[in-house]
Amino acid sequence: MLVGDDGGARPLDSAIFRVRCSQAVKINPLIKYAPKYENPDNKTFRRTSSLVQRRIVAVGDLHGDLESALSVLRMAHVIDSDGKWAGGSNTVLVQTGNVIDHGPDTKELLMLFPRLVQEANRAGGRVIQLLGESEVMNMGGDLRYVKERPDAFLSPESRATTFSSTGYLGSRLSNLPTVHRIGTTVFVHGGIQLKRANTNIQATNKLAKSELDAYVRQPTLTANYPMLLGNDGLLRYSSHSMHPGRLACDSLKRTLYAMGATRMVVGRVLQNDGKITPQCGGLLVAINTGISRYIRGKQAALEILPGGQLRALYPSGPIDFA
């Protein structure tokens, strides 16, 4: 597999990707030119085979709170006291969507992650930001949860342009992956139902992007965009994490088997106790602890160590999962 500069996985199924693979020795000098969003034509694409040997840190919904976001990233040792990348070449950071809404720091957070993407690339690390429901709603003009400062944008029209597919925020958001996989762990904002399970992550992301592009052009009933915004869509499906009984766990097992995966990490569903929550014997890990002070103010991150060991990171210290 090859990986885009924000972690969008793409298969080696064409000559251009095989050429990129053979030219791997030429990639490192180009890292400083890495784009701020996934670009299949960029020369900085690199192999992901080594990513499973790195430390993976996953954080859930951040919801408009820059201070809490920076705090949890410092706690997880992926940024330093100045907010710069500190994960070196041995860390992959995954953010599972819903960076914005509910809190005031919309632009600040949406500009933080592309900067970290570039800083991590220069160091040989990775930052993978996934698309969340909040980002899609803002691109489609659904602002019901927006709580940003009145002076965040010049005008409502200016904001709409900024979040459009040609705006400086929207153009990047429209290219973020919806699903990502590292080794046998799948990351997604909401969840993946069996009928949407696919070993080809590129194909899943491509279909999701086509729906996103259509939704932004014509944000009508969400039922018209089932893969993204349907109740069983990638951004809203939550049966596994909300009702982790035998039937849901059996369904999850079949989904993971169909994807060739062993674990799914999801955000979206709030864990009211503020704890990282493994479910279905560890097949699912729910990581939306309400980091934002405008939700719960409960800071936590998931750490996956080389070899697959899971740890929950809290301000009070790490907790290992059996």
From TrEMBL:
<dbReference type="GO" id="GO:0016787">
    <property type="term" value="F:hydrolase activity"/>
</dbReference>
<feature type="domain" description="Calcineurin-like phosphoesterase">
    <location>
        <begin position="55"/>
        <end position="202"/>
    </location>
</feature>
<protein>
    <submittedName>
        <fullName>Metallo-dependent phosphatase-like protein</fullName>
    </submittedName>
</protein>
<dbReference type="InterPro" id="IPR029052">
    <property type="entry name" value="Metallo-depent_PP-like"/>
</dbReference>
<dbReference type="Pfam" id="PF00149">
    <property type="entry name" value="Metallophos"/>
</dbReference>
<dbReference type="InterPro" id="IPR004843">
    <property type="entry name" value="Calcineurin-like_PHP"/>
</dbReference>
